Amino acid sequence: MNVEAIKIQRTSKILDALHVLDRQASGILLLVHPEGTFERTITDGDIRRLLLSGKTLEDTLAVLPIMQSVVVPEGITRVAALELMNARKLNHLPVLDETGKVTTVLERRELDQQIYLSSPHIGTSEREYVDEAFRTNWIAPLGPNVDGFENELADYVGIGHAAALSSGTAAIHLALCLLNVGAGDVVFCSTFTFVASVNPIIYQGAQPVFIDSEPESWNMSPVALEKAFAWAKREGKMPKAVIVVNLYGQSADMDPILALCQQYGVPVVEDAAESLGAKYKGKASGTFGLMGIFSFNGNKIITTSGGGMLVSEDGDLIKKARFLATQARDPAPHYEHTQIGYNYRMSNVLAGVGRGQLRVLDERVAARRAIYQRYVEKLGHLQQFAWMPEPAWSYSTHWLSACTLDAKRSAISCSDLIQNLADDKIEARPVWKPMHLQPIFRQYPSFDHADTSVAAHLFEHSICLPSGSNMSQEQQDRVIDVIIKHTGM
Ligand SMILES: *Cc1c(COP(=O)(O)O)cnc(C)c1O
């Protein structure tokens, strides 16, 4: 808002005030003393009341009653300003400097803009696929969008087969079922992840063993994995599977991990829920293990509102996954069952959303990478920040831009910075709390990269910043400005 353009003095006529209100469409005028200091605000309602009380358009604003307007000092947070607006039923708040002059006017509709960590970003073609599903009454179950989405995603990542499912968690669960993981079995899993990577191990009555991260990629440490295999060999607890998680849009260092798993003859399930569109040494993330999984939850890089995909080069595994995902119905007209199954398939309507999203995936990856680059560019001078590294072998989507705050150099803690951002209606979060530190998984073994846990250290000192592909440059500047304000030297 142009503050100078809405300043007016008591010597002006009511008619002039109306003209300025009309021209500036500001909804508010600033009545100022001759020396420029602020006196009170004037709204359309104030003028209406003057006219109704018998004043004319030719009267001057001298007839306006003296009134104490609500004003705020510079530096007030967005949340505090909004609370004040709500309490006093206002849509504007003049900000005064120490000399009593208005520096800016806060507007509710501008203040109210929340910046999310990662919100759904719908393109232009999703609706066509969904409309087609409605037009042809292919609402559920399955249908041409499901087949199309499976084929198109398989083509995109360059793998033979894919099964569209109701969630990424369901995909992990089916992968473990297909590997015959059962009661008493052991499954290795990255500790630095979201709980959905681990829960399916428990669903199967198996026991997780947690593998630490390496500092180079924040993902599974081959060193920790080797320690875990040595332990498993000693204890006779060889795992039935290793779940390797690709965090925040970045692949784990797959070559040494696959070599170790091959050496011990253990299949790999790649949890690529967060890394669709990423590459490892030029090959698509999610295609390295015996099976890979993707998620289309609302916060992921593309979304079907909720959904997942299981992929593999092994067509028989994917065929079996589709069977298990549809209640394990044997091919008989009378609903014959010889196995326990699940209701895990994706609906044809949601697959339509997925097909539209897949068409803009490359744009979404480019947008998230650009957001990360911009954070690094604009905040790189702040020595207390270290950005999530991207090794030479990695092409990360930077699904979430994550960074570590060096406690020794930073005057502010991660939680304080997250609170400062929240006060400005900006959503930032701590990184995932490692699974071996979760109350529910504490009793299970875990293996560290070095003498201490790398993941635990990252958890203590790292945060994720807003990274949505639909975030504007102005919104990103808001994030950057708040961070500089609270951490800049
Ligand atoms: C989101 C996510 C999942 C689960 O996907 P859903 O589709 O939400 O079930 C699994 N693993 C990781 C690492 C995730 O981020």
From TrEMBL:
Its cofactor is pyridoxal 5'-phosphate. It comes from Crenothrix polyspora. Belongs to the DegT/DnrJ/EryC1 family. Gene3D superfamilies: Aspartate Aminotransferase, domain 1, CBS-domain, Type I PLP-dependent aspartate aminotransferase-like (Major domain). One of its GO terms (molecular function) is GDP-4-dehydro-6-deoxy-D-mannose-4-aminotransferase activity. It catalyses: GDP-alpha-D-perosamine + 2-oxoglutarate = GDP-4-dehydro-alpha-D-rhamnose + L-glutamate. It comes from the Bacteria. CDD domains: AHBA_syn. The keyword Transferase applies. This is GDP-perosamine synthase. InterPro entries: CBS_dom, CBS_dom_sf, DegT/StrS_aminotransferase, PyrdxlP-dep_Trfase, PyrdxlP-dep_Trfase_major, PyrdxlP-dep_Trfase_small. GO terms for biological process: polysaccharide biosynthetic process. PROSITE patterns: CBS. Its EC number is 2.6.1.102. Pfam families: CBS, DegT_DnrJ_EryC1. Pathway: Bacterial outer membrane biogenesis; LPS O-antigen biosynthesis. Keywords: Aminotransferase, CBS domain, Pyridoxal phosphate, Transferase. The keyword Transferase applies.
